[in-house]
Amino acid sequence: MRQLSFRLCRALDGYVYAFLTDQMGKEDLFDNGYKVAYKSRDDNRRKELLARWQSVYTVKSIDCLQVSEPDGLPQVVQVAFEQMVEKLIAGVDVLFCDYNLAIEADLPICDGIMNKYRSTDFVLFSRDELIGPDAVTQPYMVSYCVPRYPESGNQSSQHRIYCKTDGFAFSRAIDAIVNQRERDALNGGISEPKRMATSAKHQCERTLRNKPLTFLLNQQCSSIVQQPR
């Protein structure tokens, strides 16, 4: 059994980060990656101290089953995932998402959303029990950029990073994205995280009642909590 976790955080510079996974205990790696990446950006704390989130909220589901589809990803599951992300991603500047969310096999589920949500940067992380330690199968980190708005004169770039589920890899990914956004003069943090998290809970509850999403989760989201920073 798995539990889906959607973590929503506001960084020191106002950027909104989200972390979506069904792997247990990975939120700490995400938090630690941020704290190290933003250590030098926190002017209110001594440099030897790690950074803190301005605010952080988590939406969790109750226990659910993974989809067992080793020979291919059913279209109804892909559609269900994209419907769920559509309800959660509004106002998110950087989304960390489990590369094989809710799937037992090594089948990517996130490819389509990166093209659809160009204003968001993406970090897709691996599942250790599927990938293992083989660096050929899953390099420590692969990073590339694509035009954020290819049909306009806007020259900014969207980051797409694939990495191991590792705190230092997360830190390097955050640092690369923030530096790119600074070069592109992008502003983040449009939505207030508490309101976003409350909306995410309600959207999650409503969306997961739809029949297609029962392939991903068998119950609606059940709780929203504010957690220590």
Offer a quick outline of the entry.
This protein has six helices and eight strands, in the order E-E-H-E-H-E-H-E-H-E-E-H-H-E.
Rg over alpha carbons: 17 Å
In spatial order, strands of the major sheet run 6-7-5-4-2-1-3-8
Oligomer: single chain
Q: Report the β-strand fraction as a percent range.
A: 15-25%
**Which ranges are low-confidence, i.e. pLDDT below 50, for 5 or more consecutive residues?**
208-226
Mind sketching the topology for me?
Elements: E1 5-10, E2 16-21, H1 27-37, E3 55-61, H2 75-88, E4 94-98, H3 111-116, E5 121-125, H4 128-131, E6 141-147, E7 157-163, H5 167-183, H6 193-207, E8 221-226
Parallel strand pairs: 2-4, 4-5, 5-7
Antiparallel strand pairs: 1-2, 1-3, 3-8, 6-7
Description:
The chain is an alpha/beta fold and 229 residues long. The protein is 29% helix and 21% strand. It has 6 helices and 8 strands, in the order ββαβαβαβαββααβ. The chain has an 8-stranded mixed sheet, sandwiched between helices. Strand 1 (5-10) and strand 2 (16-21) form a beta hairpin. The longest helix has 17 residues, at 167-183. The protein is globular and about 45 Å long. Mean pLDDT is 75; it is low at 208-226.
Give keywords.
229 residues; eight-stranded mixed beta sheet; globular; alpha/beta
